[in-house]
Amino acid sequence: MPERLAEMLLDLWTPLIILWITLPPCIYMAPTNQSQVLMSGSPLELNRLGEEQRILNRSKRGWVWNQMFVLEEFSGPEPILVGRLHTDLDPGSKKIKYILSGDGAGTIFQINDVTGDIHAIKRLDREEKAEYTLTAQAVDWETSKPLEPPSEFIIKVQDINDNAPEFLNGPYHATVPEMSILGTSVTNVTATDADDPVYGNSAKLVYSILEGQPYFSIEPETAVIKTALPNMDREAKEEYLVVIQAKDMGGHSGGLSGTTTLTVTLTDVNDNPPKFAQSLYHFSVPEDVVLGTAIGRVKANDQDIGENAQSSYDIIDGDGTALFEITSDAQAQDGIIRLRKPLDFETKKSYTLKVEAANVHIDPRFSGRGPFKDTATVKIVVEDADEPPVFSSPTYLLEVHENAALNSVIGQVTARDPDITSSPIRFSIDRHTDLERQFNINADDGKITLATPLDRELSVWHNITIIATEIRNHSQISRVPVAIKVLDVNDNAPEFASEYEAFLCENGKPGQVIQTVSAMDKDDPKSGHYFLYSLLPEMVNNPNFTIKKNEDNSLSILAKHNGFNRQKQEVYLLPIVISDSGNPPLSSTSTLTIRVCGCSNDGVVQSCNVEAYVLPIGLSMGALIAILACIILLLVIVVLFVTLRRHKNEPLIIKDDEDVRENIIRYDDEGGGEEDTEAFDIATLQNPDGINGFLPRKDIKPDLQFMPRQGLAPVPNGVDVDEFINVRLHEADNDPTAPPYDSIQIYGYEGRGSVAGSLSSLESTTSDSDQNFDYLSDWGPRFKRLGELYSVGESDKET
């Protein structure tokens, strides 16, 4: 490669060097003004110009140039000469000094200040920087004063083919449908070349395929990849690797090249029909299988993928089209055969079906390849199973009159065992549906009988469930609902529809309708209700009232005369006989109460009581009720006040600011000593063995009467005083007649055999000062506290 590059540089430089040697320097300096033209003349000639000419012509620099060129990537042993600067002011006496400034001056470009030669001292790269702008000036060698204004020029770096094409976006991926026609566009790629596109052919690219023939081709200039073979099959090969080359110099020898890869994937089209893996399928199913159960699966394979491989399954022929159905499983791409109707081994033992699988999405471009469907045969064998009994009807409807006799047969249900063995059937009633046990059934023949009387007016329908069980296999059970309708019989007499009370105005007119009544009957005759109304025989000639039957099956009561007076008779009772149209007819007598009332002139009832005459005129009924309510309220308040006064006692609860020792309770009686049996029974306290029964409290008068509480059992000898006190304290706390204040109770009994003796100071022969209470600490915590209290008292006295 280095030798090849050297040859290329030599070919480029040889004509340039010859041209530079043979041509005069003016070629490089590009003369543009008058001073450049006078560059070959003597300065003396310039000095001879007339005075007038110097005034008319402005001063111009004696030299100017435009641009220079230098090749990139030159790396010779010596700096490369770019060009030479020269001014016509230079007489050759070496008194002029050339100065260079600008881009790369001194670092990349160096000038000989005497000769004006410019050299490139570094290797240049056009792709990094294509041109440099510099400024040159001629100055006096000794004084460094400018001899003329500075001049700007450009050094352009000339391009050589030193960059290979690159695919910046590679590697590439593309797709194309399978079975595409010849020349179908796949994709296009693009390569870039960093060389100068306007200079030579360094950046002129040509594309070609190094690997991937004969399947694909590429346009040399546009890099568009196309299919080179028609009808490429994805099922045969799905992916292709194509190596693409881009070469500069127009593809000629010596050009640089770059490569990339393109992966082409063939996408699927529906060009393959489904195909069953086998032409005949065998399945078996028990006859008692649940409806909707999957019996088996069939599958038609399709070489396509995705939606192109989706198939729908159908049953197109066979003797079981009504019993079976087939559905498509979108995930597994197979057909599921399910049961639609019950099977019966005893009726038919096998079925044959013809199923078809067809593509869902068909591409019309490939419809000429034949039908995109396939068929297979499915044989299903029914296996015998022990089936439960089968009733002759899925439901039963029975009717019975409500007056049917007990144990009479209402109806019958029948069932059979569908199996070949034909087991006997036993019938029973599900008692959860007949909680009142109104019906029975014969276990052998299924006859349903009445167990308790029926009443249609209470319940018209009775819904029960009958159970049929195989005797040989009790696990085989069937149920059937039975609806029993109770038919009506005429067993209820008609009566008034409600409680009627009629009001008759004293100033009423003869023939005026007092009240309209209607009747009701709990029975429900088929032809509807029709009632007959009449008065009792002894009331037929009633002088006051008469009745009239209306068309709507109601009855109107009319007054025969006027002049009714409530002071003479306030209430009239009118018995009415009501009969129905049953067979036999039933009747009842209902009494209508008619009150005589005082009414206004327009017939509005105002008062129906005799006492209304003594009331003040103009006082309404509402006002009377309000006055009566106020009187009752006042009476209740007075009664409550008196009751509270009678039960009010002196306050017995000690106030917080009072001392209990100042609460003195006085008794008016002096007492009779030990012979007084009405006071406290001290003997009971002194001898617990004699406790038996209840002794009432004498210090208060009980407000409540209660049963005496059960006496305590005899206390054995050596009773504990602590326990005795606790029992007495418990009784006092639970006594409902006990006052809510403290009372003094004396306990003189110390217990038999007590080592402490008497604690009472009344019987003590020694004084308080002689007593030592420390021994009480040995008797327990309660006596220890008692000893501390006594000790504190003695200490206070001594103090």
Automatic annotation (TrEMBL):
<keyword id="KW-0165">Cleavage on pair of basic residues</keyword>
<dbReference type="GO" id="GO:0005912">
    <property type="term" value="C:adherens junction"/>
</dbReference>
<dbReference type="GO" id="GO:0045296">
    <property type="term" value="F:cadherin binding"/>
</dbReference>
<dbReference type="GO" id="GO:0016342">
    <property type="term" value="C:catenin complex"/>
</dbReference>
<dbReference type="InterPro" id="IPR002126">
    <property type="entry name" value="Cadherin-like_dom"/>
</dbReference>
<dbReference type="GO" id="GO:0043083">
    <property type="term" value="C:synaptic cleft"/>
</dbReference>
<keyword id="KW-0677">Repeat</keyword>
<keyword id="KW-0479">Metal-binding</keyword>
<keyword id="KW-1133">Transmembrane helix</keyword>
<dbReference type="GO" id="GO:0043679">
    <property type="term" value="C:axon terminus"/>
</dbReference>
<keyword id="KW-0130">Cell adhesion</keyword>
<keyword id="KW-0472">Membrane</keyword>
<dbReference type="GO" id="GO:0000902">
    <property type="term" value="P:cell morphogenesis"/>
</dbReference>
<dbReference type="GO" id="GO:0016339">
    <property type="term" value="P:calcium-dependent cell-cell adhesion via plasma membrane cell adhesion molecules"/>
</dbReference>
<dbReference type="GO" id="GO:0034332">
    <property type="term" value="P:adherens junction organization"/>
</dbReference>
<keyword id="KW-0732">Signal</keyword>
<keyword id="KW-0812">Transmembrane</keyword>
<feature type="domain" description="Cadherin">
    <location>
        <begin position="392"/>
        <end position="496"/>
    </location>
</feature>
<keyword id="KW-0325">Glycoprotein</keyword>
<comment type="function">
    <text>Cadherins are calcium-dependent cell adhesion proteins.</text>
</comment>
<dbReference type="GO" id="GO:0007043">
    <property type="term" value="P:cell-cell junction assembly"/>
</dbReference>
<dbReference type="GO" id="GO:0008013">
    <property type="term" value="F:beta-catenin binding"/>
</dbReference>
<dbReference type="GO" id="GO:0044331">
    <property type="term" value="P:cell-cell adhesion mediated by cadherin"/>
</dbReference>
<feature type="domain" description="Cadherin">
    <location>
        <begin position="87"/>
        <end position="167"/>
    </location>
</feature>
<dbReference type="GO" id="GO:0007156">
    <property type="term" value="P:homophilic cell adhesion via plasma membrane adhesion molecules"/>
</dbReference>
<dbReference type="InterPro" id="IPR015919">
    <property type="entry name" value="Cadherin-like_sf"/>
</dbReference>
<feature type="domain" description="Cadherin">
    <location>
        <begin position="496"/>
        <end position="618"/>
    </location>
</feature>
<dbReference type="InterPro" id="IPR027397">
    <property type="entry name" value="Catenin-bd_sf"/>
</dbReference>
<dbReference type="InterPro" id="IPR000233">
    <property type="entry name" value="Cadherin_Y-type_LIR"/>
</dbReference>
<dbReference type="InterPro" id="IPR039808">
    <property type="entry name" value="Cadherin"/>
</dbReference>
<dbReference type="Pfam" id="PF01049">
    <property type="entry name" value="CADH_Y-type_LIR"/>
</dbReference>
<dbReference type="GO" id="GO:0005509">
    <property type="term" value="F:calcium ion binding"/>
</dbReference>
<protein>
    <submittedName>
        <fullName>Cadherin-8 isoform X1</fullName>
    </submittedName>
</protein>
<dbReference type="Pfam" id="PF00028">
    <property type="entry name" value="Cadherin"/>
</dbReference>
<feature type="domain" description="Cadherin">
    <location>
        <begin position="277"/>
        <end position="391"/>
    </location>
</feature>
<keyword id="KW-1003">Cell membrane</keyword>
<dbReference type="GO" id="GO:0016477">
    <property type="term" value="P:cell migration"/>
</dbReference>
<dbReference type="InterPro" id="IPR020894">
    <property type="entry name" value="Cadherin_CS"/>
</dbReference>
<keyword id="KW-0106">Calcium</keyword>
<feature type="domain" description="Cadherin">
    <location>
        <begin position="168"/>
        <end position="276"/>
    </location>
</feature>
<feature type="transmembrane region" description="Helical">
    <location>
        <begin position="613"/>
        <end position="642"/>
    </location>
</feature>
